[in-house]
């Protein structure tokens, strides 16, 4: 596969890192639903640690998109055609695959579907499968990771609208938007004190700053950080970014461990993607990668990272079907006796390599872009 010379190494590095964290998040999910699991054992402690770490994955992906796509250089029609051609067809194909998989797996193997997908609550029968296939344009079913693509395509529709402002905006205009967006990141905490605030109440969910909220802020932030890079050395950037990352991480981990001891789903808004602490972690990591010296052009690490990055969308699509299988394989090989501090990274690495290998092979098929993006 020939990679274009116009690739941006530090964005490739962030994309690879974010992709690995997404896979790790679903590996951690396996530990949360697998016995024995209690809130006072080592597995919970390390699962909590990794749960907090992986929260930056989705914000980083949105920031990468903003850095690359804003301002939009094509006409609205050309832009949407390019983006949806790359995303829509793989999304539909993989949504159908994940919808059909539960019934097909049980029919062909006689094994329980939930032994491979313990995070799913789908009933693997023909009626459910048919209904979920028809509902793909509205909702995901088994492939819970596909929620991100619904949001991403919605943002694609809005980027041409905001693009003229982004193109003309200076630092002050960006700061104005990002400051108001940052205030909305505090709302999860404000809501615990005041159930109704800034006009938001039981009969009105759109408060005063609603228009500034959500994942669009990460895209604008990514554009801003690329348009106005700090240009400081990695060491100087690390002097403020590492303490910021550590403080936000500790805050998130502390409240996560003290507030939830049950299931993966009882995470709370304080580790939500649109919370101030997760945003601070994401910004710190983004600028650290941005200032990190790149590998020498043409070197093996740089070629591998560029290759992995170019296939990250396909890896994202396929990895979910591998997570449970890899976890089960480790169990069969009696490798889950390792402490969670080691087994979670090992399971993540194995799933990453398996997903990369599958997508690498699929990339040689004619018309593979409609399958893996």
SSE topology sketch:
Elements lengths: L8 H24 L9 H12 L3 H13 L6 H34 L16 H9 L12 H22 L2 H14 L2 H7 L22 H12 L6 H26 L16 H16 L8 H11 L1 H21 L7 H23 L6 H4 L1
Helix pairs in contact: 1-2, 1-3, 1-11, 1-12, 1-13, 1-14, 2-10, 3-9, 3-11, 4-5, 4-6, 4-13, 7-9, 10-11, 13-14
Q: Assign the structural class, choosing from mainly alpha, mainly beta, alpha/beta, alpha+beta, or little secondary structure.
A: mainly alpha
User: What is the averaged pLDDT score?
Assistant: 87
As a percent range, the share of strand residues is under 5%
- Which term fits the overall shape? globular
Number of helices: 15
Please compute the radius of gyration using only Cα atoms: 21 Å
Low-confidence stretches: 1-5, 261-267
Biggest sheet architecture: none
Count of beta strands = 0
Order of helices and strands: HHHHHHHHHHHHHHH
Helix content: 55-70%
User: Distance between the terminal alpha carbons, to the nearest Å?
Assistant: 14 Å
Report on this structure:
α3 crosses α9 (216-227), α3 (57-69) packs across α11 (276-291) and α4 packs parallel to α13 (312-332). With 373 residues, this protein is an all-alpha fold. The chain has helices at 9-32, 42-53, 57-69, 76-109, 126-134, 147-168, 171-184, 187-193, 216-227, 234-259, 276-291, 300-310, 312-332, 340-362, 369-372. The two termini are 14 Å apart. Helix content is 66%, strand content 0%. Residues 1-5 and 261-267 have low confidence and may be disordered. The radius of gyration is 21 Å and the shape is globular. It contains 15 helices and no strands.
